Amino acid sequence: MPNAARATHTLTRKTLPDASSINGNQQISKSDALKLTPEEEMAHFVNQSRMVTCSHPDHPEVRLKWRNPKNAIISETKGRVHIEDKGDSLALIFEAIARTDQGNWTCEVDVEGTATATEGRVTVPALRKSFKMIVYEPISFRDTNTVQTAVEDKDATIRCEVKGHPEPSVSWYFNGQPLFFSNNGRYSKLADGMSIKKVVQNDSGEYTCKAFQISATGSSFEEKTIRLNIKHKPYMPPWKKSISDAYGYVGGMVNLTCEATAEPPANFSWSANNKKLTPKSHIIYNGRHVSMLQIMIKTSSIFGKYKCEAKNELGSVTQEIHLKEGTKPDPPSLFQLRGVNSDTLDIDVGATKSHDIPPDPTTVIGYRFELMPTDEYLKSRSWDHASRRDFDVADGATYLLVQLIPDTKYLIRVAARNAAGLSDWTEVKEFSTHPVQPHGTSGSSAQPTDVCFKFVWLLAVAFPAALSITHHRFADLTKGRF
């Protein structure tokens, strides 16, 4: 409670003039009324400001005072809620409205103060006038992180604490579809969010908490989207076997890949003959959900079993790969140009595929093309920056090298591929793309040829192979399926 000096200063008023006295007594009529400005009842939001003045139009000299909803007198002249003497009125100031300010605020004549100021016998009725403060709190989300986590096979709580007055109604959506809550269902609505029983990986995704608020002055809507990540132990892809075979040949190189999805991502480690392989002694590339061990096969002692372990805080999984000795394939015996236009070269390498005999480690399963503009090769005399195109075997197919530069000479070489790796490269050949033909040129065969090439390519060429991936292609692996 503020000191008396402050209160006395605030309530100073002019004394009643003697000319208005009757036999030494000052009388204020009961019919006189206090006036509040503004008079209308208004709704306010939290943290807004407001000023209401109270006056007695017929007797501006009387003293006034304000009471809060708890009937306590407001005497502070500074602060969030205070009073200010305006001379002929007393103002109630709200610098920042709070939810606790809701209720009836009352202005009344300070009978004792008025009597003291007039220094005479005064009869003052207890005049009062009130206004109701209505306080709305807009929708807000408290302690609501946009990314939240849960653990697989355990109950999860998604926090979305919605505040507001009037109290908002809340609904939930999962990946854009509404969620329905029932007593026996997996989903339950909580005061500060929602819960899911025994979450699985399919429960990961975007959950949207939508809040709707209706008041006497209107309505408002807000929403918050939360990404739920499900933490789980590592899993090998379902198409991978626990033990798989790989092939290589002495003098060649082989890449052993180990894939495991996990949240958080797993740490990978490799071992052979119960001995851990380290990056100091071996070439190991690690991605978010994949690891690749690159082995240079210098002697036959390299062949054997290799083990990969993927581990995170929730568990681990292992994969064993048996590296077996295979046979280096022969290079393609045929390498010739079958067609050309401005951006495509059609190459025939004599591809054949047996439909009767199951493939064995020696069977050619694909081809690798390397190409680069002749001018670029002459600058470096190196194939390090050549464009690489991998194709699977398709019986009787020719292979289209597309998206080439018009009117450009290209150097091209090809290698066959089997389970053990790549053959030696063929001799390098030079082929040229055609210049771009002006649109509508009569007699031009460029456009029909282009259509034919693309039709053949779509029918005959299978998806690019994923085997024999070198360190140049490892980034593609990490960006692909995982």
From TrEMBL:
Residue ranges occupied by any Ig-like domain in the UniProt entry: 17-123, 138-227, 237-324
An MF annotation (GO) of this entry: axon guidance receptor activity
InterPro entries on file: Cell_Adh-Cytoskel_Orgn, FN3_dom, FN3_sf, Ig-like_dom, Ig-like_dom_sf, Ig-like_fold, Ig_I-set, Ig_sub
Any single Gene Ontology cellular-component annotation: plasma membrane
Domain Fibronectin type-III: start-end pairs: 331-436
Entry's Gene Ontology BP terms: homophilic cell adhesion via plasma membrane adhesion molecules; synapse organization
Keywords: Immunoglobulin domain, Repeat
Record field: transmembrane: none
Name of the molecule in the record: Neural cell adhesion molecule 1
Lineage, top ranks: Eukaryota, Metazoa, Ecdysozoa, Arthropoda, Hexapoda
